[in-house]
């Protein structure tokens, strides 16, 4: 389950969502990131979730790492790993919105190479290597040995091949509006092939996310959410993709879950399009869990 990070909300919603998700049966609680949007700060919500939960695993879906200082982000994420007692998995990627980079005065160029370099910097920081020889190591140390697992938010063959050098898996974003069985199966095949070509024998973790809505006015709410989220790319693109968002009934949600599972994915992040905590019991009822 994903927190409704992208929607305006306050303390009460955060408390209710975190506690209800932690009660189960969810495997993970995810926090996404955008800057030039109505969204809450990812690291702030992640820290709150770490303190408000005991069981569920925490995920970032995803940190747009090249828009951050890698040492500062390593420190923040190690702090969350401490607060959660080692329950953090870190999804990282480059994002696709130049506006988010501009908002924090970060360069948009060479972001893939910078991502690779920053991953190495974060791991060195977590291992206790000072960023400069005359500086002290950056704490706190993460609870998880070597730092939290890193999953790449990668789409396409080149990004997947790069990720195979350092990631524990791939968080694919192509299913967000309407999961397609054939497309997801192709992603799974491509990722596993990239792992083999990189000389790896471990199974890559495969995850993806979908927007969904249940209850009154679900279809309108889902498509409005999708349009608002994507309008940064222009109204025509936003409307075209929003019109394909189909997961707005219990049956459609069950079908989406089975589609992702059948494609060989290990985890599916549900992205709510409301801050109403009652979406959680509606979701459990729809899925029979």
From TrEMBL:
Signal peptide: none annotated. Residues 12-229 form the Luciferase-like domain. The keyword tRNA processing does not apply. Pfam families: Bac_luciferase. It comes from Streptodolium elevatio. InterPro entries: Bact_Lucif_Oxidored, Luciferase-like_dom, Luciferase-like_sf. This is LLM class flavin-dependent oxidoreductase. Keywords: Monooxygenase, Oxidoreductase. The keyword Oxidoreductase applies. It comes from the Bacteria.
């Amino acid at each position: 389950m994903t927190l409704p990070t992208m929607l305006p909300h306050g303390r009460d919603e955060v408390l209710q969502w975190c506690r209800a998700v932690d009660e189960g049966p969810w495997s993970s609680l995810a926090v996404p990131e955008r800057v030039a949007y109505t969204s809450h700060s990812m690291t702030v919500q992640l820290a709150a979730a770490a303190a408000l939960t005991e069981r569920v695993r925490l995920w970032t879906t995803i940190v747009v790492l090249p828009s951050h200082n890698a040492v500062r982000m390593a420190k923040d994420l190690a702090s969350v790993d401490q607060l959660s007692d080692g329950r953090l998995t870190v999804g990282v990627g480059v994002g696709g919105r130049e506006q988010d980079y501009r908002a924090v005065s970060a360069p948009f160029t060479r972001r893939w190479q910078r991502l690779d370099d920053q991953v190495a910097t974060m791991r060195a920081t977590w291992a206790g290597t000072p960023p400069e020889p005359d500086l002290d190591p950056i704490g706190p140390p993460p609870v998880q040995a070597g730092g939290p697992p890193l999953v790449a938010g990668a789409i396409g063959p080149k990004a997947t091949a790069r990720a195979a050098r350092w990631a524990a898996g791939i968080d694919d974003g192509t299913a967000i509006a309407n999961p397609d069985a054939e497309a997801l199966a192709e992603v799974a095949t491509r990722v596993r092939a990239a792992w083999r070509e990189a000389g790896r024998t471990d199974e890559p973790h495969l995850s993806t996310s979908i927007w969904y809505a249940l209850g009154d006015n679900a279809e309108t709410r889902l498509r409005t959410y999708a349009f608002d989220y994507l309008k940064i790319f222009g109204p025509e693109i936003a409307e075209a993709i929003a019109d394909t968002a189909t997961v707005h009934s219990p049956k459609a949600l069950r079908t989406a879950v089975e589609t992702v599972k059948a494609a060989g994915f290990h985890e599916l992040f549900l992205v709510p399009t409301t801050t109403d905590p009652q979406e959680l019991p509606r979701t459990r009822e729809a899925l029979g869990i």
